[in-house]
Amino acid sequence: MKGLSGKEAVMEEIRVNRLPAITWRYLHVNDSPDQFEFPGSSASAVFSDKRYVSEGGTLPADFCGASAETLAAAEKGQAYTVIIPENTEAELTISITAEEDRPDFAGCFIFKLEKDAKLNLIWRLSGDRKHSVFATASFYELMENAALSVSYLETGLPASSLYEQRCAVLGDDAKLDFVSAELGGEKVIVHSYGRLAGSWSEMRETALYAAAGRQSLDLFYHIDHIGKESNAVIDVKGALSDTAKKIFRGTLDFKRGCSGSVGDEGDYAIQLSPKTKNISLPLLLCTEDDVSGNHASSAGQLDMNTIYFLMTRGFSLEDARLIVVEALIRPLIDRLDESVREEVLAEVRRKLDTKEK
């Protein structure tokens, strides 16, 4: 830990999650303005198993975060390195909880899975503090035929700012399945970059959310196809209620030489209130001929015919709304580790249950 005893800055106007290919400036979607507050006294990262964990570590020089400022904040905090040896299967849970005297967190995590290694990783970020700032940066390196499954869960942390920045590099036949449940915080900034460097590598980015109140989500996913016959999926689904807002920036970039590669990206939002705001920017870039890329987005209020049908079967309006939302996100919940699925489902129901408001 590098001594974050107090706030180093109060508020700073910065820009986060800049698009890799810039569009018209008047659209105001190339990046997002942000009032950034530097994390103060840092909570601790708790590891369920420390056999493969050591303190210290440095991110790659070309690691890109949501912004230079947010990345610098993470790098000034704690640092840990996790190395899973060749032909080893492991499970690990990392828990970070905001505490009364240490409400914030700043830190870097470096993961290396050697050849044929497998890791089931669970992240838990939580806390009851009304105001916290979390800035994390994680680097995942998967060697040949390595497999990484990640379940990432944010809950609680009302009126807090969460900056999650990550980068993954995959070798030949490597597989990464990253599933996020973005349920906590008031302002959530996600910046994820994946590089399918190896042939036959596969990366799947899945995120579900239930945003309520004044919650704001700024989600950035970018995957580069470099190796031949690589496969990528970006799948984001969720619901917005009250005055919540979300912006999705997704990019699949097919680089020259990645022949036979396939990529799909989709962003789907249900707006439970006319006061919510949703912006979706799915982007395909390509310099290779022999590839297949698909993108889609959908946003809108509930289909009243479906709601009417459910209500004629005895469900209340609130229950009918929740059934439709759960039908959308349940396949994503089922991709999470079994140990957190019921917790995620209960939190989604709590946040979207209008009867409690």
UniProtKB/TrEMBL annotation:
Pfam families: SUFBD_core. Coiled coil: none annotated. Residues 110-327 form the SUF system FeS cluster assembly SufBD core domain. PANTHER family: PROTEIN ABCI7, CHLOROPLASTIC. One of its GO terms (biological process) is iron-sulfur cluster assembly. SUPFAM superfamilies: Stabilizer of iron transporter SufD. This is SufB/sufD domain protein.
